[in-house]
Fold each of these.
Amino acid sequence: MKFQGKVALVTGGSRGIGQAIAVALGGEGATVVVNYLRDAEAAQQTADRVTASGGQALTWQADVVSPSQVGRMAAAVVEQFGRIDILVNNAGGKIRAAPFLDVDEELWDECIDLNMKGTFFCSQAVARHMVRQRYGRIINISSIAGFQTQPDRTHYSVAKAGVAMLTKSMAVELAPYHITVNAVAPTYVKTKATADVIAGREDQLVCMHPLGRLGLPSDVITAVLFFASDEAEYLTGQCLFPDGGNTLGRNWPF
Ligand SMILES: NC(=O)c1ccc[n+]([C@@H]2O[C@H](COP(=O)([O-])OP(=O)(O)OC[C@H]3O[C@@H](n4cnc5c(N)ncnc54)[C@H](OP(=O)(O)O)[C@@H]3O)[C@@H](O)[C@H]2O)c1
């Protein structure tokens, strides 16, 4: 029960990687606030799984892109549970793929807003409470796409590279308050959201991973729980890559 007594907020916790992170934190004793945007039923299912694994849980609807909504969410968490120890900025995604020449203003804004603006303002809202506590763990979910190009994902790559730089800047500014800020940049992770990307070319994608398989939500959990732990207190501004070696560049069949 590594996180007994800790309060965690996971954005985009209703499904996929965020759901897995929320359930894992709950399983280690944390009280987990499961943020979502649209799918209240899925968020409640995550909360039920947290409760079943021994933790306490609450769902909270808020659009991470709205500073006022995330401000209200952070205040509500503190009012209800007295503190916020861990923030996982997981809500994000590529929205949709498009070649550089076809990315229009709407797609650009939507992608940059969800991934970068959302991470920025959620962190700011929560950090204001963490500063008072003089304790906090912020973990931002970036992507390997922020470190290497991917076809038709310029907008997403730029957004996730921004998340990585934001992690470093926040790490420096929040260090005096004993708040650590780290990033996790996964490779292709098998979730419902990536099923269409992976379908029909899993073998080709696996070839890009020296460890011989695509990522699983459990691979991301390991990195997130490490950064959230007290053992990681001297690590800040860092990025871990649960990527099976993908970013090492050996992207030919072997
Ligand atoms: N899956 C991968 O292969 C992969 C690889 C590298 C990085 N990542 C990153 O990992 C994170 C999770 O990915 P995933 O595949 O698990 O995504 P997903 O299955 O699409 O889930 C996205 C989650 O974010 C929530 N969400 C979307 N927009 C939101 C908003 N504006 N405000 C609040 N919540 C919002 C969704 O809630 P509702 O359903 O309620 O709307 C959902 O819970 C993302 O940041 C993604 O970029 C994923």
Amino acid sequence: MSDTQALKAIYDFYDDFLKGTPLACKKGCSTCCTTNVSITTLEARYILESGLLTDDLFQRLKETAAKEHFVPSTTINTSAAMCLSENQMPEETSPITFDPCPLLTDEGLCSIYEARPFSCRAMSSETPCPEGGEAYMAPFLVTANLAMYQILEHIDAEGWYGNMLDVIEIASKNGNDQIKAAETMEGKVKTNRPLSCFIIPPDEVMRFKSFMRRLSKKELENGKKLGDLLPTDWQILT
Ligand code: SF4
């Protein structure tokens, strides 16, 4: 089974998890569709395999990538590992731009909606977002989203993490050409790393364990379960 099939199972699990969450998000609302979307190469491969990213859209991505854009300082699992070893986490120093995502249509729709990356699925709000304002998420949804990012990075531990504008370019190549492309980007993309721990607020630990039990039982097409893809010794840091 390919890792993009595992990603599909994760997206399906997340869709089920979100059912029952009252969200203000609706078709045509694109307030959060900016150039600040961070993804793994795994999510980029899923987009490429979907066939939804046409040559024109790919070209638009490349043109936008040539402009200044947000670059995450590190990966989520690296940040978590630094917390675990009590290192100080690096601060985000890259400028955050709010240019519209190049994959957005003139009607405010996502051109690759079925294959959109996890950041786009996780960006939701229980109340309508004011222009330039923030989304509102229940605290446990923030916790679950962070864990999902970590799990995706773990499954793609051989890959990279960065702005979608850069990561899709890398994922469009094969083998050594991927490594060369990542090196050419001079730090714009970060190497993924395996999951070591989840950082969970003390009052959410019980609920989080239940969430992970359900996620681990999610069946994959090859008869295995999502839990088989995760390390058995992950820790919770409160
Ligand atoms: S990929 Fe789609 S959902 Fe994500 S920011 Fe771009 S247009 Fe919006």
Amino acid sequence: MNISCPNCKSQSEPYFISKDYNQHVTNETFHHYRCPECELIFISPIPEDLGVYYPDTYHFVPDSVDYLEKASGHERYKIDIVQQFTKIGSLLEIGPSYGCFTYLAKQAGFHVDAIEMNARCCEFLHDVVGVHAINSDDPVRALRKAGPYDVIALWHVIEHLPNAWATLEAMCSRVKPGGYVVLAAPNPDAFQFRVMGRYWPHVDAPRHVMLIPMKLLVDKMSQLGMKAELVTTRDEGSLGWNTFGWEFFFGNLNANRHIKRVLHRIGRLVARMLAPIERREGKGSAYTMVFKKVA
Ligand SMILES: [Zn+2]
């Protein structure tokens, strides 16, 4: 049965059926469709209560600022990307979890707010990181009362949102003229996706409700008055997701903790072998984009 694309309304055929291969929260099957026009890949129907597919362990909350200091080292590239475009101002992060990037942005001198669905993470963001945290799983509603901001950042969040288009619109309206939206997400044009299909760890059903092609996202943002300043699958973060993809693709083959560890190591090896392909622009498993508000 064909389904109307949630973006352009074109009739979309079934693409594949998947399961929660990453977290095993449920045994349900999920139906994915691919739009022949805009190439969006989406789950239909989207489960009504997505919250139940995020296990307690999904949102790790550290116990100290020391942990944050160490963990945020791996995410320094994110603040470096932001600071290539703007050094200072107000910044909102949507979906920061416990807040490595939030922490780095605050350290860099930004005035930082956060919108986060997990209440324990919000407590940590407020009490330990020291930022204003809005506890909400509906960014569109939360954005109505927030900002405007010089920067809004979403690191691997947009693919989780059933109302992604409305969120992009709300976000762009809460960025100041001349301000920036910084966004990273899985890349459905990735080499890995072609090889792994439904078993690609970034399919992450049902938590990833859609996979948005780069071209579609750039077009969409342009319609919202946002000019693409950076579009790449080759930044440090995106390259890291290539390794993650292979580690988890192999790791997901076996539930035993020890065997999993060996499989992850094999994944890392395969990632190294395939790096010449995956490091090519557009072929990586994730992209990072920076948009400037021009209208
Ligand atoms: Zn479409």
Amino acid sequence: MVSEGDGGLRRSDQLVVFDCDGVLVDSERLNVGIWTSAMRDLGLTFGPQDAIHHFLGRAYADNRHTAAALTGREVPPEWESHWRAEFRRSHDRLEAIPGIAEALDDIVDAGHPVCVASGSIGPAIVRKLEVTGLDRFFGGRYYSAEEVERGKPAPDVFLHAAADLGFAPSRCVVVEDSDPGVAAARAAGMPVVGYRSDLTPAGGLADADVVIDDMRALPAALASLG
Ligand SMILES: [Mg+2]
């Protein structure tokens, strides 16, 4: 876990596991623009749809390898430090996904313990949730793909979160916005609610149990899976 504190966790209920980027915070919109510019900076012809296809919903470490594979060489250190700084700067203008704070209020009020399991690096998760004020819901229960061997679509970060909080995978529900994330939840044996936005590719989230396009519908979607 990125930071400590179980915040009054109720262990007898269903654990709701939230992806961070694109589910809690509207960062993927910014990430698409940054990845597009970063790959063009490496000399590639690259558009927003390419950024969505190659990078969204995946761990930063995996995206770094993808960038190298797409260009056919290791990424230059100065390129990486420049664009990592751009990602960090973008966190200052982050906003919460519309409706997510209201949904979290309802979910926590209903007695569900909640946590975050993300491909983002630990300090970035903390920063994104602080900037948007959503940190108040989670009691520091943040899990990063940095803490496990494999990023999404592997199930590692979801299984790590469930094990650390003492929940069997069958007592967890995942909320995800990307196909690698949905695949990771499936591989972990956890039902998954898909959140569709204007960044979701056509045909995306086909493997989610339920798909919503408004976070205000999340409490009802979770109840339908309970
Ligand atoms: Mg996501």
